[in-house]
Amino acid sequence: MLEIINACKSFNIGTVNQKDALINLNLKLKPGDFTTVIGGNGSGKSTTLNIIAGVHAIESGKIILDGQDITKLPEHRRAKFLGRVFQDPMMGTAADMMIEENLAMANHRGEVPLLGWSINQQEREFFAEKLKLLDLGLENRMSSKAGLLSGGQRQALTLLMATLRKPKLLLLDEHTAALDPKTAAKVLELTQEIVNQDQLTTLMITHNMKDAIRIGNRLIMMYNGKIIYDVEGEEKKQLHTSDLLQKFEVASSGEFASDKMLLS
Amino acid sequence: MDLSALLASAQDAAGQGLLWSVMAIGLYISFKILDYADMTVDGSFALGGCVSAWAIAYQGLNPFFALFIAFFAGCVAGAVTGLLHTLLKIPPILAGILTMLALYSINQRILGQPNLSMSNEVTVFNAIGDKFNLSRMQQNMVIGVIAAAISIALLYWFFGTKLGTAIRATGNNENMVRAMGINTDVIKIIGLLLANGFVALSGSLVAQSQSYGDINSGVGAIVIGLASVIIGEVFFGKDKSFAVKLISVVVGSIVYRIIVAVVLQLGLQTNDLKLLTASLVALALGMQRVVKYLTDKKVSQKIGEEGEQNA
Prior knowledge:
The complex is a heterodimer. By secondary structure, chain A is of the alpha/beta class. Chain A has one domain (2-95, 150-251): Rossmann fold. Helix content of chain A is 34%, strand content 23%. In chain A, the strands form 2 sheets. A 6-stranded mixed beta sheet of chain A has the order 6-7-8-3-9-10, with helices on both faces. A 4-stranded antiparallel beta sheet of chain A has the order 2-1-4-5, covered by helices on one side. In chain A, helix 3 packs parallel to helix 5 (151-164). Chain B is globular.
């Protein structure tokens, strides 16, 4: 479904602050893969998602999505294929716009906005139906502004927006990290429901190792711009957090053996 | 003070306010909806006036057609600012200032002189005035009401469409709009184009009403527009439907003109008006801070008291 071939991405090239965020990254996702991504700060997790989404252009390499070379496509031209949920709950929705207006934009993701009405009655009913599945009572607040929602509600709404039109790939960038544990669990549960139901190919960054092991069928660990561990299926299910820590220790040659960011 | 004179000047002010309200509506689009501090406004307002003076006095064109030409010219000016910002990555305020400065020369070129009289020509105002036998004041009122009503109706429709929604969303959260597959650069250009179209249309209306095109007519237009928007907010509150917001801008523009008329009656000179307008906007913005501070304090006090009760 997704293939990243020898992708390199550096920031601040030619300055003392040059940071090689991705070094010859190779990643291949099969259709329906639910892959969790772990790694310390600066390991290149978010950059990986951002080069797929087109937020950053890569210096070399190729990105192929469902057979199409998207390496050179700008961010807005890739959006048609991608559903995205961000770490910051504020980033996924327009705060001053109604819930239904946010959903209406998501329902036309990838289309050029023209002069048709932004939303019609049929869409409203469709949105209400979908919102009901979130079980947050949002179907009764469709004309409330998105900014009035709590962080968890906004993430749930963003998740719904990202998957309203079935994306070829769902990108989740630590989308529960800014939420309290209970809300995070709820949003994660919703994520699993939606992904399973629509059989979405998903790439999810998380800081929670237990979640990374428990959720999805594949796990990759990143360190210094490279994938240092890649495991799937039964082998992944058998993993323990101690295994991951050990892998990490070996890969980083003990440098960050007790990386607090990896623990949770 | 002479009350009847005051009343007469208040009526005159209302007519002026209506004509200027179209400019304030344009500014509302860029400043409030698109969240873009667009400095083009001063230039595009004068551009509207100069272009229509040129069309009417030099080319002998129909004054109604001159309104369209002015609108179109304003759109081009807005698009230039938009391109400077999106294509060349020039910061919003500077992009607008560059266009505004360039327009000063362009306006002079259009007129061939600093100002141009249309007093012997047919304007939208005397055309309607002669037909329905209206006084100058009534002309301003009638045409101002029509212009403001059409602008509000058009924009109310437009911002309910997919394109209009994309502009609103871009002013709100660009990131989200890009994630929805929309090119925010194009959206910003369209928003600025539209905003400056209305600004120039207002410039044309005001110039035709005064039978006078002037390259300096736009100086301070931004602040006058901001004053109108803020005064409107004071009267109608902030969290209102879109139609009410647009109407509040028009009311704000009228109230601003009435304030100006009153202070002129009180003995202030025309030259003092820019100081007055700047002070008014500064005061209004400052007041918003003070009100927010006071309400925040009240709320936190209440929370504190409740906390003590619960303890």
